[in-house]
Amino acid sequence: MDIRFTDGPEDMVTWIASTPGVMQRASHALVVGDGTWLIDPVDAPEARRRLAAMPPVAGVIQLLDRHGRDCTPLSREFGVPLIRTPSAATPGIPFGVIVVRSTRRWTESALWWPTHRALVVAEAMGTATYYLASPGDVIGPHPCLRIAPPHTLMGYPAEHVLTGHGDPVHRLDAGALVDAAIATARRRTPRWALALLVGSVRRAARGAR
Fold it and tell me: Which pLDDT band holds residue 200 (cuts at 50, 70, 90)?
């Protein structure tokens, strides 16, 4: 498994784990006061070394019902609570909670960190290539949510958007990019499908060389 860290504020550490044949997975460590909160973490020696230089782990949050990753073993090892798909009524979380989707097949929450203007989304939005409708896009909705995009994530003045798949977005208009991606998701679905097809053809061509 290959681990790389992304650039960003010191109190928002993101590492991306990629394995051949497996989707890239982004994990986050957020420093709040004298504690560090792990969001959808993937365990790795490189991440452990980075965490050793940060405040003690205060809790682990699993934002998506099917994003188990290493949340359970890490919460047990550090002796901290594991909070799965929290709601606004869940106690003990130093973030605002947004219910993105709550169905039998898909339950997902997102976090809003107002003091840092940071939005943390597990699956509904992403920056990985297969989320994007065109090469110029920065962020987009999950392919399965293009017809019914996650409107609950609109309207946040985010300057940082941390996703579960792909690099985080650290820029002043990050929230506006989320709003635009959601507002145009349905009508841009044909463009997204074409971009996905072109990308698949190009990857197949490179593999055949």
Answer: low
Length of the chain: 209
The pTM for the full model equals 0.90
Residue 65 — left, alpha, or beta (φ > 0 → left; ψ -120 to 50 → alpha)? alpha
Query: Residues 33, 120, 63, 84: what is their CA dihedral angle, to the nearest 10 degrees?
Result: 20
The residue written with tokens 């682990």 in the block is 60
Q: Mind listing the pLDDT tens digit for each residue in 106-139?
A: 999 999 999 999 999 999 999 988 898 887 899 9
Phi, psi of 121 (to 5 degrees): -130, 130
Q: What percent of the chain has pLDDT over 90?
A: 77
Euclidean distance between CA atoms 134 and 102, whole angstroms? 29
CB count, 10 Å around CB of 71?
Answer: 23
- From CA 29, how far away is CA 6, in angstroms rounded? 12
C-alpha 44/C-alpha 56 separation (Å) is 17
DSSP line for 8-66? --TTEEEEEEEETTEEEEEEEEEEETTEEEEES----HHHHHHHHTSSPEEEEEE-BTT
Query: How close are the terminal C-alpha atoms of the chain, in Å?
Result: 25
Nearest by Cα to 64 from 18, 106, 10: 106
CA distance 98 to 87: 7
**CA-based angle 22:25:28, to the nearest 5?**
165
